[in-house]
Amino acid sequence: MxxxxxxxxxxxxTLVSSVAHxxxxxNASVVSNYLWRGLEQADGGPAVQGGLDYSNESGFxxxxxxxxxxxxxxxxxxxxxxxxxxxxxxxxxxxxxxYVLFAYPGGEDGLNFGELxxxxxxxxxxxxxxxxxNATGADFGDSLYLSADYAIPLSxxxxxxxxxxxxxxxFSSDTIDIGATIAKDSWAVGVSKVDExxxxxxxxxxxxWDFAL
Length: 213
What we know:
Helix content: under 10%
Strand order of the largest sheet: 1-4-5-6-7-8-9-10-11-12-13-14
Keywords: Signal
Number of domains: 1
Number of strands: 14
Signal peptide: 1-22
Order of helices and strands: HEEEEEEEEEEEEEE
Pfam family, one: Gcw_chp
Radius of gyration: 19 Å
Structural class: mainly beta
Protein name: TorF family putative porin
InterPro entries: CHP02001 (IPR010239)
CATH architecture: Beta Barrel
């Protein structure tokens, strides 16, 4: 497609402006029990986690995140790669859409998979959807995760987070997970439960750091 000189110059100006306002940050955390959608990822043990994120004022972002895992097999590391876009639909609704690859270097064949996701927030409520995009031996849409989260401010800068999620499809076990978290500053403690399989109530605590680079 042809562009006029003016459009090309405007595009170059936008690119330079975006790069000039780009941000690079890092994060690290420790958690007593790594849970994902209510399911234990480190055999009930602690995990050390961290990542890098790039974002610019256009709304585009990309990043990577890693954690130790223990599924009883060869996989010992989870490495996530993701990219997406954030913005606003109107004055009240914000959105975050993107793609994430869940990779397990050195793990068994078939562990790696990718999802397309969308999260939509209005005030304290966030609803999300994640759809299987790619996996060995599975088709697009073979799993679906729906979630809702609600944040309630408490006194002394504490916050109560309430969560419910539904994971279903041929690629996943059909589960519903519920949870609650109390957080303040970098600390969080929480409780989680799934309705199928291991139905024990799971407790966890975490501490997180964020760094501007």
